[in-house]
Amino acid sequence: MSRPSFIKSRYNSFRFAFNGLAAVFRSEPNMHLHVLASIVVLVMAYRFEVTRVEWCLLILCIGMVWVAEIFNTSIETLTDLVSPEHNILAGKTKDLAAGAVLMAAITAVAVGLFIFIPYWAEYVKTEL
Ligand SMILES: Nc1ncnc2c1ncn2[C@@H]1O[C@H](COP(=O)(O)OP(=O)(O)OP(=O)(O)O)[C@@H](O)[C@H]1O
């Protein structure tokens, strides 16, 4: 059997990765919440004209939460495959993965508050 060309195999890698992204969006209600939160944050960042460094921090936080959720979904899927029956270690594995998402989300909220509180305070002072 001939090996696929370099370009074809790279193309397939990207296609599989996008399939994975699409699967998370289809199957995970939590991902819909992350997307909604990301849109709210990006709109606020645009509205308040945050600095270039603040844009970078916000985008990093959004990416961190999305990546954590995608890994969480991957770990849940693998755990269900390996241990469909009740098992303490399977439960611990899923709890750890969910804990990672929570930690990422808490970090993102903390960064968001540090960035936006001064803008909110300025808005309240000048507009209300
Ligand atoms: N096979 C199992 N053995 C033991 N406990 C399990 C098992 N599967 C799930 N659990 C427990 O139930 C919890 C929820 O598992 P579930 O697979 O429903 O995740 P989920 O609620 O869909 O997570 P998410 O909301 O992140 O998608 C786990 O965190 C774990 O504590």
From TrEMBL:
Q: Which InterPro entries match?
A: DAGK, DAGK_sf, UDPK
- Give the binding site residues for ATP: 28, 76, 94-95
Required co-factor?
Mg(2+)
One annotated GO molecular function is: ATP binding
Q: Does the keyword Membrane apply?
A: yes
Tell me which residues this entry annotates as catalytic. Answer: 69
Mind telling me which residue stretches traverse the membrane in this protein? Answer: 55-75, 95-121
How is the cofactor bound, in the record's words?
Mn(2+), Zn(2+), Cd(2+) and Co(2+) support activity to lesser extents.
Q: How does it sit in the membrane?
A: Multi-pass membrane protein
Keywords, sorted A to Z: ATP-binding, Cell membrane, Kinase, Lipid biosynthesis, Lipid metabolism, Magnesium, Membrane, Metal-binding, Nucleotide-binding, Phospholipid biosynthesis, Phospholipid metabolism, Transferase, Transmembrane, Transmembrane helix
- Similarity field: Belongs to the bacterial diacylglycerol kinase family.
Instruction: Please state what the protein is called.
Output: Undecaprenol kinase
> Which species does this protein come from?
Pontibacter ramchanderi
